[in-house]
Amino acid sequence: MADNLPTEFDVVIIGTGLPESILAAACSRIGQRVLHIDSRSYYGGNWASFSFSGLLTWLKEYQQNNDIGEESTVAWQDLIHETEEAISLRKKDETIQHTEAFCYASQDMEDNVEEIGALQKNPSSGVSSTFTEVLDSAGLPEDSQSSYFNSDEMSAKHTQKSDREISLEVTDVEKSVEKEKYCGDKTCMHTVSDKDGNKGESKSTEDNSNQPIRNRITYLQIVKEGRRFNIDLVSKLLYSQGLLIDLLIKSDVSRYIEFKNVTRILAFREGKVEQVPCSRADVFNSRELTMVEKRMLMKFLTFCLEYEQHPDEYQAFRQCSFSEYLKTKKLTPNLQHFVLHSIAMTSESSCTTIDGLNAIKNFLQCLGRFGNTPFLFPLYGQGEIPQCFCRMCAVFGGIYCLRHKVQCFVVDKESGRCKAIIDHFGQRINAKYFIVEDSYLSEETCSNVQYKQISRAVLITDQSILKTDADQQTSILIVPPAEPGACAVRVTELCSSTMTCMKDTYLVHLTCSSSQTAREDLESVVKKLFTPYTETEIRKKELTKPRLLWALYFNMRDSSGISRSSYNGLPSNVYVCSGPDCGLGNEHAVKQAETLFQEIFPTEEFCPPPPNPEDIIFDGDDKHPESPGTNNVIVAKLESSEESKNQESPEKHLQN
Prior knowledge:
Layout: E1 11-14, H1 18-29, E2 34-37, E3 49-50, H2 52-67, E4 84-88, E5 96-103, H3 129-138, H4 151-157, E6 187-191, H5 205-209, H6 219-224, E7 231-232, E8 238-239, H7 243-251, E9 259-261, E10 264-269, E11 272-275, H8 280-285, H9 291-305, H10 322-328, H11 333-343, H12 353-366, E12 375-378, H13 384-395, E13 399-401, E14 406-412, E15 418-423, E16 428-430, E17 433-437, E18 452-461, E19 475-479, E20 489-494, E21 506-513, H14 518-529, E22 531-532, H15 535-540, E23 547-558, E24 574-577, H16 587-600, E25 617-618, E26 635-636, H17 641-648, E27 654-655
Helix pairs in contact: 1-13, 1-16, 2-3, 10-12
């Protein structure tokens, strides 16, 4: 822990979520002195990804966050001058609620079971016996460092690519970082037994291979292969022509990350899962559509691509819902279902005609850039993306410090502007601008804010929801609401080639806007698509549905769409970033980051391309005459030999 940070910066950013990380990279790129800190022990905030044991640690620490007393910190009240006033920040993260975990797989645990590559730990006291047993079996590290910027990873990720496109290769690079998360609310952990009350008998791998039905996945296997999992707290995909992809390419941050194409778009209709045709070839090769339907669908999709040029076709329906508009286009119920839920990916009640047409146009424009679907998924999970922008910030001199709490903003009474922060060591850090993630603001500051909630579920299953000859499928499915007015549920299924789960398992994410607790919102959909793992059912017959091995439900705060005026007493130079929204893409985070950047630095370019290394010269080379047309060459000062060594490794800027 760096307890003596520099005291003067241009920009201080609190929180390492996606919008904050983009802003950190943008500010550092234009030469601003950036301090990027987070009270958590990992990067990403609610955008983070965890190994399986890391997720269990998150649940455990989330429970402890409510049970233990406050950590001792230096009193900040005595550090405020007479001409100043303080705005205190929240001490605990309260963005996660109603956390419940269920284990359906056989739990025959051996003594001292631990995750491959995990560090040893001593179980902490004061945790419920059931939950401690599960955590102990995982062999969780207690004090593992969470910096993702070790030198080996940095050098491997920093390789320059010949072009500025996104790489779609699948790598076998093993993640070497243990991820943790702090949170705050009651945590529930449930063990689900077989119908006969037994937890199953342990079988060898050889026995499993002889079973004609399916391989048997146990909880022991999941724990041992826990580092193969990278479980996202927020489930999102990237549109191949979306703002985030364009930003990654423009800023050259794409060099730090690789993607996999989403291979299938599925539909849930009349109780079964079907594949939706996307490209022209898929449409005409589809067995789900009649020849008449294929022609009708192609004609309608062609219209949607250029609907703005034919206003007479939709002007009379601008105030109608998109589902009502589709009925006027003489589409069959089968086509209406595909268009509404699998192409536009909207709900029947809340989507207007213009929004629906826009969504379909965006969908179609994204087709073909990287594959037959419009979507990409980052290898190792969504949590990689904030880290990539943090790397870019560090390369250009940004300083990082995790597990570093901020107690308050210091505001000048006369000007009303924030002039400094005071951390938990009592150190005052001055800056011109301050950017803070919404979850850090106090209840008093947010007393007038009305938050929405997101219902989330994370499942580990043994088979795809639509089994085909190719087992490495990455799929997205929209399950329509069972009742009018309810929200549709978005299901994303990830295979092991995405580097998010172990072999022979699938990682499934469910997301919808909250109306109740996450379990109440999503459990009905889970029951439609999956069957809980039980030994008795396996012996009786071959199951048509995937078996559910493990499940986690939780509610996450959605702070998007909140205007600045909703916050009380916010100084003019303090800017607020929101957490993840419920949308499928990352457009809101990118737009927010760019909007805030332009407010702070209206004359600067947002995330410009990095300079060509050949264009960088040192002061020691000034004896060479300057050639014409080199006005934009970046000049770097030649430091002492010791400082030069530090510059060679950008990750040295990071302090944990």
